[in-house]
Write a structure and sequence with these properties.
There is one protein chain. With about 160 residues, the protein is mostly helical. Helix content is about 75%, strand content about 0%. The protein has a single domain, classed as Four Helix Bundle (Hemerythrin (Met), subunit A), CATH 1.20.120.
Length: about 160
């Protein structure tokens, strides 16, 4: 606690963790938007080029989420800090991490499937759109869940909304 009853101030390490998390989120959101744009391109009659563009955007999303996941697993990350210092939120941190790993596994599997050289027929673009739309929805849900957790933890410790200090 600071002066007589005022909430504690965040540490430079906590602020750096938040900045890293926000940069990760922004990079992943940009990759998600690029994938949405690729999926919205016309596919009939040009399935090959369409699939290449989608695969390229999916590869960027794969890289962004891999980096985001790596940063979130670091011992000095915001999630690690929450897990370490707020025992009542540990299971939520674990749930967020497990769900994110499942989404990462799905991204990797879809990249491999779309790159499969053994497939002689063009991909079913309607199916790919539907499956990737599901993935994007799940990523949005994951981001919201993680944001809620971080804001709850921050409010518990500092007694103020994140960003208002």
């Amino acid at each position: 606690m600071g002066d007589s009853g005022s909430p504690p101030e965040s540490t430079p390490q906590q602020r750096a963790g938040l900045e890293t998390r926000l940069a990760d989120r922004d990079r992943t959101l940009a990759a998600m938007h690029a994938l949405e744009e690729a999926l919205a391109e016309p596919a009939p009659g040009r399935e090959g080029p369409w699939q290449d563009k989608v695969l390229g955007a999916l590869a960027v999303l794969d890289e962004a989420t891999a980096e985001e996941n790596e940063n979130a697993e670091q011992p000095d990350s915001l999630l690690s800090d929450i897990k370490r210092f707020q025992p009542r939120l540990r299971s939520q941190v674990r749930g967020v991490r497990v769900q994110y790993r499942h989404l990462r596994d799905r991204i990797v599997a879809l990249c491999e499937e779309l790159q499969d050289p053994d497939v002689d027929t063009p991909a079913d673009y309607a199916d790919i759109r539907q499956r990737l739309a599901w993935l994007l929805t799940a990523l949005r849900h994951q981001q919201a869940r993680e944001s809620d957790l971080i804001y709850e933890a921050y409010y518990d410790v500092f007694g103020v909304e994140l960003g208002s200090d």
